[in-house]
Design a protein that fits this description.
Layout lengths: L6 E4 L12 E4 L7 E3 L12 E2 L6 E3 L8 E3 L1 E5 L2 E4 L2 E2 L3 E5 L4 E2 L11 E5 L2 E5 L6 E4 L8 E6 L2 E7 L2 H11 L4 E5 L9 H4 L13 E4 L2 E10 L19 H7 L7 H4 L4 E10 L1 E4 L7 E5 L17 E5 L2 E5 L6 E4 L8 E6 L2 E7 L2 H11 L4 E5 L30 E5 H8 L15 E4 L11 E4 L2 E10 L19 H7 L11 E8 L16 E5 L5
Length: 532
């Protein structure tokens, strides 16, 4: 029962991580945690209690350079990975192999990092962009790099990279190296001896998404924290002086931390998996003043509003409108609405007057408001209006089901019958499947995608929203409904006018779906997230 945007926390202490595991630092203030207790089996079902929410994920590909915010990351034995970028797998060194960090060169924090088309891209003030292939030539020499008195290997990124780093820092010759997967990492235990903390509320074990991690020790902070990330200037005082006033260790732990204050926690990797920040499906909705939930059936131009989420903010964009930024975590003083759809209520917190004015102005019809579902609010029970669902099934603002699936073959078959082809966006699924026959999904009752088990409940009765052009926001009230009614009607036309895809209810909530997982019946080609 694990939700993708949450982190879960073990209540009891288990054996410490093996020496081969590499620590990952998670800022406790930005993570979300849940308690767990194991049953008899090593990886049995978990009993969990939420204590927070993951609000940000960051990867630092080049040690001491600027971090990169990501929506999803893979947890590997050596830390987080997103595409070609792995956490701290590039390193600046002196010509003798000694590591250079922002402790010695504070301006390293001004270098931003991204990747594109198999290349690492470095950007810095007053410098042209540097592009380095992620996969380096085997002819490039391998350097022995010294970090905290221990050796680790790295392949030299070449003369152009060395000249770029040297020119930007403008102090002495430096080189850039890249750790490759076949090289030997350092052993965490050689650096810092894990210990059992005396804090009674310490996080021994945590689960985020499908990844499991084991706490090792608090992170001792150094003067690197005093480097201003916007200017690259080190003042050598704050926040260290303040942290030393209240975050020092017990005398019994002086041999580990010495005089360094503690802030953040190191975790070793117990089970690899996928992390993603908190951005649930269809957890915002537009309502009338009385609380009735709207959809594109009533306001077709809603399909023109695009949605992103970054750094704890939801951003809405629409034609001829300025972008609207709304904090995901709303003030508790904002009112809570009872939102109604098909006569069934769910709750949502009001996103404020600015959001209401933005939505109202764009739709240009009547006053509307935007609300956000928060964990532990009242949800809707589809069983109350659709008997095919179970009493335990629940949704928030979706019409009837938490997950909607459709196959590429079904869409292609439909398009052969239409004069004008339509896109998958007309049907607004969460999961798009390839590799099966047309309408095979109508008969799937139990499917497995990755580690996620899903139960088919019923075919989805399609409505006028499928006739809304997702590029123009115009509803023609005709196709594809007319064609679907002719060749793929529902079993009961008085209740279901047609069916083309399958509603699914999750058997467990650990829904971490990424491209190219195999299932028992199909191959997952694309994960489609449609928020409005």
């Amino acid at each position: 029962m694990v939700e993708p945007g949450f982190l879960w926390l073990a209540k009891r202490r288990l054996d410490w991580l093996s020496a081969a595991a590499v620590a990952v630092l998670i800022a406790l203030g930005a993570a979300a945690a849940w308690h767990w207790r194991r049953r008899a089996s090593r990886r049995g079902r978990l009993r969990l209690q939420p204590v927070g929410t993951v609000s940000g994920l960051f990867i630092y590909p080049v040690k001491s350079c600027r971090g990169l915010a990501v929506r999803q990351a893979e947890v590997t034995d050596l830390g987080l990975r997103s595409g070609d970028l792995r956490d701290r797998c590039w390193l600046v060194i002196k010509e003798d192999g000694h590591t250079v960090t922002a402790r010695q060169e504070p301006r390293l924090v001004l270098i931003s990092v991204s990747s594109e088309d198999g290349c690492l891209i470095l950007r810095a003030p007053d410098m042209e962009d540097l592009r380095i292939p992620v996969k380096l030539s085997s002819k490039n020499p391998v350097q022995n790099c010294r970090l905290f008195g221990f050796d680790v290997q790295g392949r030299d990124c070449g003369e152009e990279a060395a000249q770029w780093i040297t020119a930007f820092l403008d102090t002495q010759p430096y080189r850039l190296v890249h750790f490759e997967s076949n090289m030997f990492p350092r052993n965490s235990k050689d650096l810092l001896e894990p210990f059992r903390t005396s804090d009674k509320d310490a996080w021994d074990e945590i689960v985020i998404g499908s990844a499991e991690m084991k706490g090792a020790m608090a992170c001792p902070r150094c003067i690197l924290t005093t480097v201003d990330p916007d200017t690259g200037i080190m003042d050598r005082k704050e926040p260290l002086e303040t942290l030393k006033g209240y975050r020092t260790c017990d005398p019994s732990e002086k041999h580990i931390y010495k005089s360094s204050p503690r802030f953040g926690w190191y975790f070793g990797i117990d089970k690899k998996g996928i992390l993603q920040d908190y951005f649930l499906f269809r957890c915002w909705t537009v309502i009338k003043e009385g609380g009735y939930m709207l959809s594109a059936k009533e306001e077709p131009r809603l399909v023109l509003v695009s949605v992103t989420c970054e750094h704890g903010y939801l951003t809405l964009n629409a034609p001829e409108m300025k972008a609207l930024r709304i904090p995901v975590e709303l003030p508790r003083t904002n009112s809570v609405w009872n939102c109604r759809r098909f006569g069934i209520h769910a709750q949502g917190r009001d996103c404020g007057d600015e959001a209401a004015q933005w939505i109202t102005s764009f739709l240009n019809s009547k006053p509307y408001r935007l609300v956000h579902y928060e964990p532990n609010m009242v949800t809707r029970k589809p069983r109350d209006f659709l008997p095919s669902f179970q009493p335990t099934d629940e949704v928030i603002y979706a019409e009837a089901s938490p997950i909607l699936l459709i196959s590429e073959a079904s869409l292609e078959d439909l398009n052969t019958r239409l004069e004008k082809k339509i896109a998958i966006a007309n049907f607004r699924p969460n999961i798009f499947v390839t590799g099966c026959g047309p309408y095979d999904e109508d008969h799937w009752t139990d499917i497995l995608i990755g580690t996620v088990e899903l139960k088919g409940r019923m075919s989805c009765p399609r409505c006028l929203i499928t006739t809304v052009d997702p590029d123009t926001g115009v509803m023609d009230r005709n196709e594809p409904l007319k064609t679907l009614k002719r060749f793929h009607p529902g079993e009961n036309l008085s209740m279901w006018s047609l069916r083309i895809d399958t509603d699914l209810a999750a058997l467990n909530r650990s829904i971490n779906l990424t491209d190219y997982y195999n299932s028992q019946k199909c191959r997952l080609a694309t994960l489609v997230l449609l928020m409005n």
